[in-house]
From TrEMBL:
Superkingdom: Bacteria
Domain Cas12f1-like TNB stretches: 315-380
Name assigned to this protein: Transposase
Similarity-based family: In the C-terminal section; belongs to the transposase 35 family.
InterPro entries: Cas12f1-like_TNB (IPR010095), Transposase (IPR001959), Transposase_put_HTH (IPR021027)
Domain Transposase putative helix-turn-helix: 1-44
Residue span(s) of domain Probable transposase IS891/IS1136/IS1341: 194-303
Signal peptide (residue range): none
Organism listed in the record: Brasilonema bromeliae SPC951
Keywords: DNA recombination, DNA-binding, Metal-binding, Transposition, Zinc
Pfam families: Cas12f1-like_TNB, HTH_OrfB_IS605, OrfB_IS605
Metal-binding listed as a keyword: yes
Length: 417
């Protein structure tokens, strides 16, 4: 099992200059290596007897460029550019591994037939992190002991250990990240033991979750969680700062200072959203043994007129966090096809078409009247239980669990950011 803990570090001014220099040198090397690959692809993309001598000049056919050839060229790079000798060798290798991973995602589709975008050249300042692939190892470049992080060729620096490292996990790698408000170290930890999910015959509490914009989520028991919209709350302030930035001379000290201020606003928006997602996920996981959610096409929904609001609530990010939290707590998370969950009646199965403005489900066949989101959540739960082979009543849930008021979740309807 792999987890990542992020801590803030306090480097001195000299160390900040060294790490900034590392990031810039790694960025240049990344761009050079990417240029090598693109040039090789351009020269060898078709057979030599089929190339056009007009639009494609035929020159010397270069050897194949991959991670291993570029890694072997690191020795020559250090001879031509001595500054690269000051960078930990394994960090340079990981930099090339990142490029190789992005390159393969672009050229070769995954199991579902999807491919990533073409790797892009990084502009100045876009390289934000470098990696030490080994920690607390005799041959490692990073050591963490008693709240002090010692990096090879950089030196020791204090770490703000706001929470202790979990017992039984081994430190695998350290990623030094530059953010808008300072420097951080992301520690990857590994434990050989993997929590096994709860057996299905021992599942006692289940819930279906329907996500939305008015209410962030509605459960099959009628519980609701108000939507947190951090970007909508901050967008007016953000727009003013971006307007001021447009009047600054690009590259000036005032421009860079205001640019960092805008980055801090975006950082706060992301942190508020992340904290809300984790709190909600933990509340669900602590109360239920099986959680049913929709397998939504977020990219497709983001192209609709409601795209900004959909990206603000970040359903996909929440479901991803919910799955991660559920794995650690041995809870089942089942994704189901969302098609028809709002239209179908959870009581009798009849089709009841609705528009977005219709917030109540009124079945013409069985006369059931409930909230449309609760009706969808019950359908989601029914499909999930059918998928795993469990039975559920028409009202949703196993046993005699009763709906709880929203106050039981800790929300009183007032949004705070």
């Amino acid at each position: 099992m792999l987890i990542t803990y992020c801590y803030r570090i306090k480097p001195n001014p000299e160390q900040v200059v060294i790490m900034d220099n590392w990031l810039e040198l790694l960025r240049r090397h990344y761009n050079y290596a990417l240029g090598q690959r693109l040039d090789w692809l351009r020269r060898t993309r078709c057979q030599i007897d089929r190339c056009s001598t007009v639009s494609q000049p035929i020159g010397e056919i270069p050897d194949k460029v991959d991670y291993y050839t570029q890694q072997s060229d690191l020795k020559q790079t250090k001879q031509l550019f001595p500054n690269y000798k000051n960078i930990w060798a394994e960090s340079q290798q990981v930099n090339l591994q990142r490029l190789d991973k992005a390159w393969k995602k672009w050229l070769f589709p995954d199991k579902s037939g999807k491919r990533g975008g073409r790797p892009k050249f990084k502009k100045s300042g876009q390289m934000r992190s470098f990696v030490f692939p080994r920690v607390n190892n005799p041959k490692a470049g990073a050591f963490l002991e008693n709240g002090v992080l010692r990096l090879s060729k950089i030196g020791p620096m204090p770490v703000i250990m706001h929470r202790p490292l979990p017992v039984g996990f081994n430190l695998k790698q350290a990623t030094i990240v530059k953010k808008a408000d300072g420097w951080y170290v992301c520690l990857s930890l590994e434990d050989d033991t993997v929590p096994s999910p709860l057996p299905l015959d021992e599942v006692k509490s289940t819930v279906g979750v329907d996500v939305g914009l008015k209410e962030f989520l509605t459960t099959s028991l009628g519980e609701t969680v108000p939507a947190s919209k951090p970007y909508r709350t901050a967008q007016n302030h953000l727009a003013r700062q971006q307007k001021f930035l447009s009047r600054k001379h690009k590259g000036s000290n005032g421009y860079k200072k205001l640019q960092n201020k805008i980055a801090r606003i975006h950082q706060r928006v992301g942190r508020v959203r992340e904290n809300f997602h984790y709190n909600t996920a933990h509340k669900l996981v602590k109360r239920y043994d099986l959680i049913a959610v929709e397998d939504l096409n977020i990219r497709g929904l983001a192209r609709t007129p409601l795209g900004k609001s959909i990206l603000d609530v970040a359903w996909g990010s929440f479901i991803h966090k919910l799955e991660a939290v559920a794995v650690k707590c041995s809870v089942h998370v089942v994704k189901v096809n969302p098609h028809g969950t709002t239209v179908d009646c959870s009581n009798c199965g009849a089709k009841v078409p609705k528009t977005l403005s219709m917030r109540t489900h009124e079945c013409h066949k069985c006369n059931a009247v409930i909230d449309r989101d609760e009706n969808a959540a019950r359908n989601i739960l029914q499909r999930a239980l059918n998928a795993v082979g469990l039975m559920v009543s028409a009202g949703g849930g196993l046993g005699d669990a009763q709906p709880m008021k929203p106050e039981a979740w800790g929300w009183n309807g007032v949004q705070t950011t």
